[in-house]
Amino acid sequence: MRQELRYRFAANVMARWNLRAGADAADRAGMTSAETTRWRELAGRLVDGYDPASGRYEQFAGYFALEPLLVKDVAVPPVAADLLLGRDRVARSQLIKQPDVLMLHHLVPDQVEPGSLGPNLDYYDPRTAHGSSLSPAITASLLGRAGRPDEALAMLRMALALDLDDLTGMTGAGLHMASLGGVWQAVVTGLAGVRVRANVLTADPRLPAAWDGLHLRFRCLGRKVRLDITHDRTEIWADAPLMVALPGQTPRTVAGAATLRRAG
Amino acid sequence: MTTIEPAGVTEVLAILGHDEPGPPVTETAAAIARLAGGEVRQVRLAAGLSPQQAARQVMRALHQPCTVSGVLAAGELSRPLWQRVAQQSAKPVVLVPPEAREQPPRIRRVLLPLDGTTRSASAVAGTAERLARVGAEIVVLHVFDAQTVPKFWNQHAHAGQAWGQEFLARYCALPGARLELRSGTAAEHVVKVAGTEQADMIALGWSQRLEPGRALVVQRAVLDAGVPVMLVPMPAD
Fold first, then answer.
1. Do B183 and A84 touch (CB under 8 A)?
2. CATH architecture of A193-264
3. Structural domain spans, chain A
4. CA–CA separation, B33 and B40 (whole Å)
5. Could you read off the pLDDT of B52-91 as tens digits, one per residue?
6. Which residues on chain B are in Cβ contact (under 8 Å) with A82?
7. Coil, helix or strand for A252?
């Protein structure tokens, strides 16, 4: 088990997050002990494969030394590369169905190095076959967050077509609900850039050039929220007082309709 | 859709060269005739015919309304003949390799390679249904290659089962039909799986085009599978 954790860097990041979150929770509950101190020590010793020089995380120990096979050399993605090339061949190469490294940036963005999303998207996307039905939606979300909305839209369309156009060849067996959930996340957290931290809703919208606007309704912190986003303004409406902000701005309380403007 | 479904009196032609021994062509024709509920009629080609002349004689016989299929040897020497007949016939033609193992009286298991297009599935649907109705086991083979590989494949065990069920539902919805999936080159796997599954016959829809780069599966199956290959013409592109 320790061997596995040592070499699966994404697993290490998740373990580190859990150890620290557990220790924090114990602190809040007044249960700080030698054991929770030990959790933090262990968390600090877990290696995560991050290279500050390149800004990249390594998928797993030794990954960078594998055959530098790109998906464009094999097929047009999305493609189930395992079926085309065989599992062994794929395992010997840098080709990935869906990178753990990018999933980390999606699931626990606060647990990865600030500014590392772009370098890792640049590196891993050409190596990603997107053979997992979840991959296009998650990649769309990440591209949106990275300020690449037109690329995000291409992946979003792929995710949308997954069941609508039966890209899997087995929609008859049921819808791909995780992918549909991913589509929602790609729109809300990716293109609208919605995040909730410390009871503050922030929006950092990046609309694709092909879109005139984006209109969203969702619930956040118990409030009904509506966002009306165009290329030059973001309007928000909440049915009860809600702390909101654009990135880098001081949060303010909104009740009813308000317009969020970028500084400058 | 071309089938071996009979209309009235039914004949399966056993097409023999002037000095060609009957088996295995006659054995195969008998098995096909039993399948079609018909009889075997031998067509013995005259000596000294050119491939074009021999093909014309075969085509005249195949053209008869009561004829549902023709069976002929597919040796290297007879290639000019069987290629012409297979390319020109509107009815299924069964090619029997000279080294074919002894044909059982009844066709028990048929390998049905399908490329995942409705066109190829439609071509062999009637034949497959008839085979299944008389008790033959249908083993469908689909090979993943650069053109046919799925775009997505999640957890392997689940995806394989769900995808396979959907594939059979779309392309060969016959009770008891079984799907074999392989990755690689279709031509190679057709030969291999025909051997491992001990198929008595391979049934292939084909475009009747033999120019370079076309009908690779057909050519490989006829030359190397060691069992009779039924070629069912597909509608034009």
1. yes
2. Sandwich (2.60)
3. 1-48, 49-132, 133-191, 193-264
4. 6
5. 999 999 999 999 999 999 999 998 778 899 999 999 999 9
6. 153, 156
7. strand
